[in-house]
Amino acid sequence: MMPFRKPLLKALKTTLAYSMYLIPPQTSELLQGPGSVKKLPALIKTQGIRKPLIVTDSILMEIRLLDKLFAAFDEIGMSYAIYDGVQPNPSVDNIEDAYALYLKNGCDAVIGFGGGSSMDCAKVVAGRVVRPNLTADKLGGYFKIMLPIPKKVPRIFAVPTTSGTGAETTSAGVITDPKKNTKYTINDFMIHPHFIILDPELTLGLPPFLTTITAIDALSHVIEGYIGSAHCQTSDIYSEVAIRMIFDNIDKVNKNGKDIVARSQMMMASYYGGIVLNRSLTGYVHPFAHKIGNMYNLPHGRVIGAVMPAVFDFYGKTVEKRLARLADIINISHPSMSDAQKTKAFIEAIRTMNQAYGIDATIPELKESDFKEIAHSIHWECIPYPVPKIMDDNDIFRLLRVLKG
Ligand SMILES: [Fe+2]
Questions:
Q1: Which of 184, 190, 81, 88 is nearest to 136 (CA)?
Q2: Which of 46, 58, 165, 310 has the largest count of CB atoms under 10 Å?
Q3: In angstroms, what is the span from residue 311 Cα to ligand 1's centroid?
Q4: 29 C-alpha to ligand 1 centroid (Å)
């Protein structure tokens, strides 16, 4: 069941979409280019910081991806603490453990080093520092860190090691609570990273499948923002540039993971995706992917890849003009083609991309008996999202059947 009737929901979404104009854009300082991570300790020092907490995961420690950063800290004689227990979907315990380590070591800044999970964990720890009475499971929702009185959070440095989530530039963190089998999304301007380090060298060792599913995630951020009703001229520019970058480079990074130019482009595209997410939010693709991914423990980007074409097909005429423009941008259209034909070609290009890099078009794990629960979650998550066309239960069930294959 939908929580509101369609016209009321549409009015609510329109109001929320327009209210995005009232939100000032969040900005970060950018350090970018191959090897830029080595400059991070010196940058931290200029901020008057004494001892940062590095938040990362054990795999990155094992493959020694942080060695260059550690060496740069040693070079300037700066100490740091490390929390390397971040799990793929950071848990409430991860936040609390990292926070305890932050206090124990007398830290005064956080560095989120890794994929979206490590960056989200670091962001939430920074928020936790200024709200010592609110454990991580109480921070879910909107502006729990900022309100009632904003306090200065420790400096947050985000260092992505994949090109996809855009978490380095979003004002949100998602954490899970395995004991209650639930997740919390913490939305708060106070946890927007202050500094972003985009070093493509950190992504050179990413295996092809991980490269692809993260790229597909970035692609979905820029397209969902582009066709939703909260897009604006600025977000359109980021979307259009990023879409071109992804289509131009996905094959290069798959064939040669060491192609530093292509890796740089993918990293920028992912960063632009985060900017678009902040401004324009998402549509139905993400609520489907969140619930299905959580329920069957499937990687985010793999589900996104399957869901995207099916949702865009459902949008139909409502997104024709926008997707036709994207077909022009990636050069798969011809002046003689109608908008409908261009849109079809664009959706087909996503399907071809999925197929080329091993992303299944269907999700056989889906169970018909779970459809009601999935629909319920999608309706609730989607309330504030500026979707181009609203789905009811039957639309969702139909789409889930298509995805089940
Ligand atoms: Fe995503």
A1: 184
A2: 165
A3: 15
A4: 23
Q: For residue 194, how far is its CA from the centre of ligand 1 (angstroms)?
A: 21
**Which structural domain, as residue segments, surrounds residue 278?**
6-21+206-404
Residue 13 within a domain: yes
pLDDT range class, residue 10, cuts 50, 70, 90: confident
Domain harbouring 187, CATH code: 3.40.50.1970
pLDDT in tens, 27-43: 889 999 999 999 999 99
Q: What does the pLDDT read at residue 182?
A: 78
Q: How far is the CA of 197 from the centre of ligand 1 (A)?
A: 20
pTM confidence score: 0.93
Torsional sign, CA 251, 343, 289, 160: positive
CB 307 within 8 A of CB 296: no
Measured in angstroms, how far is the CA atom of residue 313 from the centroid of ligand 1? 19
Q: Ligand 1 mean position to 278 CA, how many Å?
A: 12
75 Cα: distance to centroid of ligand 1 (angstroms): 37
Cα separations in angstroms, 34 against 203, 260, 273:
10, 8, 20
pLDDT in tens, 53-109: 999 999 999 999 999 999 999 999 999 999 999 998 899 999 999 999 999 999 999
CATH of residue 345: 1.20.1090.10
The model's confidence at residue 266, banded by pLDDT at 50, 70 and 90, is very high
Q: How far is the CA of 218 from the centre of ligand 1 (A)?
A: 7
CA distance linking residue 101 with residue 98, whole number of Å: 5
